[in-house]
Amino acid sequence: MTAHTSLPAVCMMDAAGKIRSWSAECQWLFGLTPAEAAGQAFGTCIAPGHEHDFITLVTAARTKAVRSGIGLLANDKSVFTASLTIVPQSTRSGTVDQFVLIVDSGLHDEDAKQPDTDAAFFKRFSANLPGPFYVLDQVGHLVTWNRVLEEATQLRSDELAGMHALDFFDEAQRDTIKQKMRNAFERGVSSVEAWVVRKDGSRTPYLFNCARTKVDGDICICGMGIDITERKQAEEILHLYQRALQASVNGVVIARRAENGNRIELVNPAFEQISGYRQDEVAGMDLLFICAKDTDHGEQGKVRHALQHCHSIHVVIRSRRKNGDLFWSDLKIAPVANSAGTVTHFVGVLSDVTEAKHYEAQLEHLANHDTLTGLANRNLLHDHMEMAIQQARRHGNLAAFAFIDVDNFKFINDTLGHAAGDDVLRTLAQRLRASVREIDTIARLGGDEFVIIFANQPDAGHVVDMLERVRHNIAEAIPTAEQPIHVNVSIGVSVYPRDGNDAELLLRAADAAMYHAKFIGRNNYQFYSADLNASVHKRIRLEASLRGAIDREEMYLLYQPKVDLRSGRIVGAEALVRWKHPAQGTLPPAEFIPVAEDTGLIVPLGDWVMRRACAELKALHDRGFNDFSIAVNLSSRQFKQRKFLDCVAEHVGTAGIKAGALELELTESQLMDNPAHAAQLMSQLKELGVRLSIDDFGTGYSSLSYLQKFPVDSIKIDRSFVRDLDEGAEDAIITKAVIALGHNLNVKVIAEGVETKEQLAFLRHYGCDQIQGHYFSEPVDGETMQCLLEEKRVLAVMQ
Ligand code: C2E
Ligand code: CA
Ligand code: CA
User: Fold this and answer.
1) Residue 788 reports pLDDT greater than 50
2) Which of 93, 446, 510, 749 could be 742's S-S partner, Cβ–Cβ 3.0 to 4.6 Å?
3) How many angstroms is it from 606 CA to the middle of ligand 2?
């Protein structure tokens, strides 16, 4: 070790013994560059055998500065003895977490051989320290210090000599500092944060750590300050943030991103106030708890997506307060990344916008609704008409628009005053509302004009039913302050797609139809299209007259004989209803059965048919035609009646006939509508003893597996298959197949609509059991039937 230095080597070591700073003298002494030394244990510089001394020394240094001779390892691995001083430091107040180590190898120069005074020693080593260093006597006067202190205070060496330490500080801090100094003298160490006021008045914050020590026999304290300006600034900003968070009127919530969701860590007072939850109640909850369950699915989806993909999001959603109330919250969520760019947190800012939302809804309502009646206005009507049109287009059905105008409204207004007029309009609005489904739109166009939208209508008949209901509901007198008023309306109806493709056109058409209704004489309704008008009115008239037809005895039955193909004899007949309409003459079932089905009149009508058929059977049996049977056609409405079975039993009983003489014809589609129910009811009917057959076989979509479950006696091949029975024709193949199928299932097969010799020959050839049709006889009245039976008429070709 040839070269030498006049300065002691100084380094810093943390609580774990790792080197944190390394001076040039250290490098010279131990041969490590500052970069090599950083993070290494200082223990590696201790000579073997001296480790224990070193540990003892460091332990003692936790409470006060210590100094002792110790063996060290030089850069050439030679061992040398030096004086090691260890001064405790703490970067946070309270705990010692760092040490300054001063190695004085005594190798410097001649005067080093003289024993150093402590004060001189401190002076020498402190020159190298990074912070202001000081030694104070028990009064608090400076004994020695370094250059950094001179710079920190802007005082010269001669000014500092003998100065009291408290003079560096503000009056306000002096008491605290005095106390801390006392602590150091009494307990060995102490630390304090304080602002050093320089000569020019500027101030710098320092963290001072000091320890008790002996300097040339006197008890002193020595220590060093660390400039904490940066930390203070950071703290101040943090504090500012904190204050802002506390003072914010917006709710703020911070959540940590985790595997299983985003866990709330912090909320501010505004959040607590808005939500009603305290910080400790929400801590750990998932951030999504902000979104009220089962609301605003679209928006919540967006929030989820944003959280999943770490995007910012801005939504207005409903949240629930602790007390259960919903409120609208305007919510912005943004991801927060750490210094490595990884999103670790989300911060949400929300404000309660319930009131604004209500106001908005109110405005929207005002913009779209009529103030007098609360009904939709022209604006909304237009939108809803477009919607109804689109819906009808999609579903392939109808949308109807009824334009309603109050008859003589001007007269009401003029004679009873506007207040009464308003009353009338309001009441009308309520009654219209009550006449239609919740989903139907009613609008007031202003004045005395209203429009109803009937969306999703299967046919015009339905619309008529609805209009009838509307007219019925508004017929009652409206009470006003003056007197009850009877109000009539004229209604014009347009129908999509028939009368137009867009809302405007359809509204104009309905308006025109309304004028037509007024022209005809008010208090009625008219469809825009003439055809529809005609058919609707015809239907209405038909419906009205059908209601009384049975009572007026306008209905009668014809019987079409059924002939057995083996014997050629009449074995039974099918009852077919006719209506002798007073104005339109005799009507076939096709003209009125559908109306009867729609209105439910089919039930009393079917009942009447069965009663008549049973009475006819009774008459025939009484004349000795015991084996004769009559088949009646059933509608599915009848079939679905709960008391249907009882009805049949009653008719059979009342007439006093064998149940086996009555046959019921059901179509394939009626059975397949609800096969399970059909099968059950059929077996009950079978128990009763009546016969059953499947009508129009081949036109429906029977499943063969069900067919086996239906306990039928016969199947009837539909007339459409019998029409073309040339050998090889498709119909001929089907007919042959049905006959074969029937025989396999052990049921009789009856062919309908047989008109020619050829058809008959074909059917007989393939073993069909019975036929019906004009070839043998058209449907005839009961009397003619009896004659045929008495004549014992047989099938022509049989002879
Ligand atoms: P459906 O049950 O298929 O009745 C057979 C229809 O074919 C009858 O028509 C009959 O007159 C006709 N017809 C019979 N033989 C021939 C023929 O050789 N050539 C031609 N062109 N037609 C023939 P109708 O009487 O007009 O009855 C029509 C439909 O009305 C019946 O079809 C049945 O579904 C229904 N119907 C008739 N009466 C009643 C009833 O009392 N109640 C119910 N629910 N429906 C009935
Ligand atoms: Ca039939
Ligand atoms: Ca038929």
Assistant:
1) yes
2) 749
3) 13
Q: Which amino acid is at 246?
A: Q
137 lines ligand 1 (CB under 6 A): no
SS3 content of the chain, % helix, strand, coil (to 5): 45, 30, 30
Q: How far is the CA of 203 from the centre of ligand 2 (A)?
A: 112
The confidence band for 114, taking pLDDT boundaries of 50, 70 and 90, is low
> Quick one: pLDDT at residue 674?
84
Instruction: Confirm or reject: Cβ of 480 under 6 Å from ligand 1.
Output: no
Compute the average pLDDT of residues 595-619: 92
Cα 315 from Cα 299, distance rounded (Å): 6
Burial of 378 per CB tally in 10 Å (0-12, 13-18, 19+) = middle
Question: Is 374:429 a contact under the CB 8 Å cutoff?
Answer: yes
How many CB atoms within 10 Å of residue 537? Answer: 14
Helix (H) or strand (E) holding 13: strand 9-14
pLDDT of 301-342, one tens digit each? 999 999 999 999 999 999 999 998 999 999 999 999 988 889
Max CA distance (Å), the chain: 164
Helical pair 378-395 and 354-368, crossing angle rounded to 10 deg = 80
695 lines ligand 1 (CB under 6 A): yes
Torsion of CA 183, 188, 193, 197, to 10 degrees: 80
For 184-232, the pLDDT digits (tens) are: 999 888 889 999 999 899 999 999 998 888 888 889 999 999 999 988 8
Q: In Å, how far are 127, 137, 144, 165, 378 from 116, measured between CA atoms?
A: 16, 19, 14, 25, 105
The angle that helices 460-474 and 418-435 make with each other, rounded to 10 degrees, is 140
| Beta strand ranges found along 393-521 (DSSP E) | 398-406, 441-446, 449-457, 489-496
pTM of the model: 0.47
Amino acid at 672: M
What pLDDT does 270 receive? 93
Distance 695 CA to ligand 2 centre (A): 6
Task: Give the Cα separation of 410 and 395 in Å (integer).
Answer: 41
Query: Comparing C-alpha atoms, which of 113, 148, 105, 144 is closest to residue 5?
Result: 105
Question: CA end-to-end span of the chain, whole Å?
Answer: 151
What are the CB-based long-range contacts (under 8 Å, 24+) for 392-398?
Answer: 392/455, 392/456, 392/457, 392/496, 392/497, 393/496, 393/497, 395/456, 397/456, 397/457, 397/458, 398/457, 398/458, 398/459, 398/460, 398/463, 398/495, 398/496, 398/497, 398/498
Cis-peptide, bond into residue 497, ω within 30° of zero: yes
**Three-state DSSP state, 498:** coil
Q: Are 719 and 753 in contact (CB under 8 A)?
A: yes
Cα separation, 182 vs 500, in Å, equals: 100
The answer to whether the beta carbons of residues 165 and 140 sit under 8 Å apart is yes
Query: Which residue lies with its CA nearest to atom 22 of ligand 1?
Result: 753
Ligand nearest to the CA of 717: 3
3-state secondary structure of 156: coil
